[in-house]
Task: structure prediction
Amino acid sequence: MSLNERISRVIEYSGFTPSEFADEVDVQRSSISHVTSGRNKPSLEFIIKIKSRFPEILWDWLVNGDGEMLKSELPSEEEIVEEKTKPTSLPDLFTLITDEEEEEIEEEEIIEKTSPQESPSESFKTYGSKANEKISDSQRLEKSTKEIVSQVIENQSNKIKRIVLFYENGKFESFEP
Result:
């Protein structure tokens, strides 16, 4: 059986007319006509589009004509539902909580609801020590004015050679002490 005949058989299997099949697989209608008549051979892209739309068709059969057209062991609807309900290899956030932790969380929620608080968004938990909260020099965002003034005084050990003032009208003045 030639590749063109196998594609014709896939069209029959799909239950679509050739024009509907072309729309379904997202190819030009004329290409379906040319392939099924034997005028042209299908491109790899054409075959990939058929395979992606009909995953139950076996590659070996579609490309080489070897074996059966359809996968013999298609999962039943029950197996598909079972696969969807199986846990994935990585647990999600909520499967990591044990029953004991869940009870503790529920108790905390009850305490929060029953105890009076100044504001519901406030949290009275402390995290770490004060030493960890201190910002290092590399993270400092602004310096105090005392530090800036002391830096300017330190930098003034050099003598000023010239001061130049530039005016908006383009003129300038130069002063030398």
User: Anything to note?
Assistant: The two ends are 102 Å apart (CA to CA). The first helix runs from residue 3 to 14.
